Amino acid sequence: MQGRYGEIRSLLEGHHVRLVAVSKTRSAEEIMELYESGQRDFGENRVPEMRIKQATLPPDIRWHMIGHLQKNKVKYIAPWIFMIQSVDSPELLESIHLAARKAGRHIPCLLQVHIAEEENKYGFSEETLDTMLSSGIYKDWDGIRIAGLMGMATNTENTETVRSEFHRLHVIFTAIKGRYFSGDPGFCELSMGMSGDFRTAMEEGSTMVRIGSLIFS
Ligand SMILES: *Cc1c(COP(=O)(O)O)cnc(C)c1O
Predict the structure, then answer these.
(1) 22 lines ligand 1 (CB under 6 A)
(2) Is residue 66 in contact with ligand 1, taking CB distance under 6 Å?
(3) Contacts (Cβ under 8 Å, ≥6 apart) of 86
(4) Which of 107, 148, 155, 171 would give a disulfide with 100, using CB separation of 3.0 to 4.6 Å?
(5) pTM score over 0.85
(6) Which ligand 1 atom is the nearest neighbour of the CA of 196?
(7) pLDDT (tens digit, 0 to 9) for every residue of the chain, 217 residues total?
């Protein structure tokens, strides 16, 4: 495990890409092994599991929520979550804003965009994303910081499909940045790439990859 982890990390560092180690279903011992190697960013997709890990593992771990999040669960993670990468509706964004205010925080959020062919992946469409951003409603929500976009490509062996989806997400990112965040250097993250497709994602401009099976197995 350590060999592979080191190999991936040095590959990413040369490109200034942040590695989020996806630790869902992994034990505290497995997480600590990476922690001892210097890893601090970890991604989880379920609130109950993340809460238990957050309460028992070192406090300087940066926890990233990467799975579908229910509005009524936001309050449990608002006091300490580092970033919520899977914001898929204006209603969820507002709930995060309210919970963050209560916790006295500003929570960095990524807007998840649906770019894959599969129906079963969450996220804004290009249209619903544009509708929310052009409404400007999020500007009053001072509990959140929109830090960029996140997306998942189709789970396929066809590299050209994956590449064109990541490419499209980068085009959307650039357009949104120009239209709504041109004066905001905080809108800078493009989270794309997993174990099977992170090299393609990096070639298409990813700033953050979420890798699980490749480093933990
Ligand atoms: C599980 C998961 C990953 C990591 O997947 P691997 O193939 O194990 O690298 C990345 N992103 C999200 C949203 C996930 O749910």
Answers:
(1) yes
(2) yes
(3) 45, 65, 66, 67, 68, 69, 110, 112, 122, 150
(4) 107
(5) yes
(6) 7
(7) 555 899 899 889 889 899 999 999 999 999 999 999 999 999 999 999 999 999 999 999 999 999 999 999 999 999 999 999 999 999 999 999 999 999 999 999 999 999 998 887 789 999 999 999 999 999 999 999 999 999 999 999 999 999 999 999 999 999 999 999 999 999 999 999 999 999 999 999 999 999 999 999 8
CB count within 10 Å of CB 201 equals 28
* φ and ψ at residue 14, rounded to 5 degrees: -60, -20
Residue nearest to atom 7 of ligand 1 (CA): 195
| Ligand 1 atom at minimal distance to the Cα of residue 150 | 13
CB 212 near ligand 1, within 6 Å:
yes
